[in-house]
Design goal:
Layout: E1 5-13, E2 16-21, E3 24-30, H1 32-42, E4 47-51, H2 59-72, E5 77-80, H3 86-94, E6 99-102, H4 104-108, H5 111-120, E7 125-134, E8 137-142, E9 147-152, H6 153-163, E10 167-172, H7 184-193, E11 198-201, H8 207-215, E12 221-224, H9 226-229, H10 235-244
Parallel strand pairs: 1-4, 1-12, 4-5, 5-6, 6-7, 7-10, 10-11, 11-12
Antiparallel strand pairs: 1-2, 2-3, 7-8, 8-9
C-alpha cells in the first residue's frame, strides 16, 4: 500500500499566505516561504502553493516566489493559480516547482489538459476541482466558488483523467474552512471511480478528520491550511496519531 500523504496548502495573495472560510473573509497567515520551510522540516510530504488572485501582471511575481520557495524546500511542491498555457507551466517547472495545478483554465479549455500532459507528462499535471452540492448534485464551480458551471463533479473528474491528469485535487466548497471534516462520501466515489490519486481538501479540523479522509474517503492524500498555519495541529503529532491508528504514513 502506498503511504498516505499530508499536504499543507498555502493560498497566496500579494505574496502573503491567507486563509478564509468558504473561500471568503481572508486573513493573513504568514510568509509563504517561511511557512513552507517550516512544514518541510516538520515532515510534510508535499506542499501546494496557490496564487488565488493570479493575473497575467502577477506572473513574474509568482515566478520569483517559486524560485525563492525552491531554494528552501527539499520536498515536492505544486504551484497553481492563473496557469493557462504550456509557457506558464514551463516557467513554473523551470523555477523549481515539481507539479502544477490547473483549475478554471481546464474547465474553459479541456484540451489544455491533453496538451500539458503530452508536453510535460501526466505526473506533474494536477487538476484542481472546486465543487459544491446544488440540488443534491455535486457541481463544479470556478473563480473561488463564485461562478457555477454545468459540469458535474464525477463526470468532469473522469474526463480530466481521460485527458491525462495525473492527480485530482478535490475541494469541497461546502466544507472549506468549516473544520467540520472532509466530504468523505463523494471523495470515496472519486477514489472508486478513478485510477489516479485523489487529494482531499476542505474541512479539516481535527486529527480524526484526516483518519476519516483516508478510511471513509479513501483519499490518497489530505490537504489542509488553517489548522497548520495557526498551529492548531502539528504535523509531527498528526503523523504519530495516524500511525497509531494503523494508517501507512511516511515518517
Amino acid at each position: 500500500m502506498l503511504a498516505k500523504r499530508i499536504i499543507p496548502c498555502l493560498d497566496i495573495k500579494d505574496g502573503r499566505t491567507v486563509k478564509g472560510v468558504n473561500f471568503v473573509n481572508l486573513r493573513d497567515a504568514g510568509d509563504p516561504v517561511e511557512l513552507g520551510q517550516l512544514y518541510s522540516q516538520e515532515g510534510a510530504d508535499e506542499l501546494v502553493f496557490l496564487d488565488i488572485t493570479a493575473t497575467n501582471e502577477k506572473r513574474k511575481t509568482l515566478k520569483a516566489l517559486v524560485l525563492k520557495i525552491a531554494k528552501h524546500l527539499d520536498i515536492p511542491f505544486t504551484v497553481g493559480g492563473g496557469i493557462r498555457s504550456i509557457e506558464d507551466v514551463a516557467s513554473m517547472l523551470e523555477s523549481g516547482a515539481d507539479k502544477v495545478s490547473i483549475n478554471s483554465a481546464a474547465v474553459k479549455n479541456p484540451q489544455l489538459i491533453n496538451e500539458l500532459s503530452k508536453h510535460f507528462g501526466s505526473q506533474c499535471i494536477v487538476v484542481a476541482i472546486d465543487a459544491r452540492q446544488t440540488n443534491n448534485e455535486w457541481m463544479v464551480h470556478l473563480n473561488g466558488g463564485r461562478v457555477p458551471t454545468d459540469k458535474e463533479l464525477l463526470s468532469w473528474a473522469k474526463e480530466c483523467v481521460d485527458r491525462g491528469a495525473g492527480e485530482i485535487l478535490f475541494t469541497s466548497m461546502d466544507n472549506d474552512g468549516t473544520k467540520a471534516g472532509f466530504a468523505n462520501t463523494i471523495t470515496a466515489q472519486l477514489s472508486d471511480t478513478l485510477d489516479i490519486p485523489i487529494i482531499a481538501s476542505g474541512g479539516a479540523g481535527t486529527m480524526e478528520h484526516f483518519y476519516e479522509a483516508f478510511t471513509k474517503g479513501k483519499a490518497d492524500a489530505a490537504l489542509a491550511a488553517s489548522i497548520f498555519h495557526f498551529k492548531e495541529i502539528g504535523i509531527p503529532d498528526l503523523k504519530k496519531y495516524l500511525k497509531n491508528e494503523g494508517i501507512v504514513i511516511r515518517s
